[in-house]
Amino acid sequence: MPQPATPTLSLRNYGASRGSHAHDHFQVLIGLEGVLEIEVEGRGAGVGAGQAQVVAPGDRHDFEARGSGSMCLVLDTTHARWARCAERAPADLPQLHALARYLAHCMKQPQQFALALQQGPALLLEAWSPAPSLPHKRRRRIEWPALAAWARARWHEPLTVADLATVACLSPSQLAQRCREEQGMSAMHWLRRLRLAHARELRLEGIGVAETARRTGYRSPSALTAALRRLDS
């Protein structure tokens, strides 16, 4: 199978028909329902609800589901850090399973939960194997959900990286670097995507374009419409 250009999340239902293949990327399976019997390079295992398995690139694996079938959240990714995850159990399996169930819920309404699905692969990796702390230096943890909630309440203000950094108790340069490391984008890009995600949620709730623009701080309905069009293109 070809490598995925970007990490890809999917919900997959497995039946009694036996399958067998290998691929050129990591495949992460987290059981949601039923039991998936999987044998990786001759090593057998079962992925039941609340269990997980990482298949490394090139590993031949055979699989079939028991009884009425199995449903798994599947992540296809080339991120090299999953190599370590293939060698060890998740750091917190209940947390990983809860995250997987939440992402499965989000996938049923992808437009409403676009931001959560975008961050899903990184969150799964962090839940499985938290990044090691830097030696001799404790880093202040950024509560991204709390920071997002703070920003969402202030779209009427011209928010800057310095504003975010003040709330996170970091310098602007530290906040900018941490956002690139932990969110995979610049702080302003993260802020714009958050604002657009909120605007899209309001539109899906039936709020008019003008009122949505007012609530999310866009200077005009046409500016909001153009921003949403760029996001979807």
UniProtKB/TrEMBL annotation:
SUPFAM superfamilies xref list: RmlC-like cupins
PROSITE patterns: HTH_ARAC_FAMILY_2 (PS01124)
Position of the signal peptide: none
InterPro entries: AraC_XylS_family_regulators, Cupin_2, HTH_AraC, RmlC-like_jellyroll, RmlC_Cupin_sf
Keywords, alphabetical: DNA-binding, Transcription, Transcription regulation
GO molecular function, one term: sequence-specific DNA binding
Residue intervals of the HTH araC/xylS-type domain: 145-233
A UniProt-annotated Pfam family: Cupin_2
Domain of life: Bacteria
Annotated protein name in UniProt: Transcriptional activator FtrA
Species of the source: Variovorax paradoxus
Species classification: Bacteria, Pseudomonadati, Pseudomonadota, Betaproteobacteria, Burkholderiales
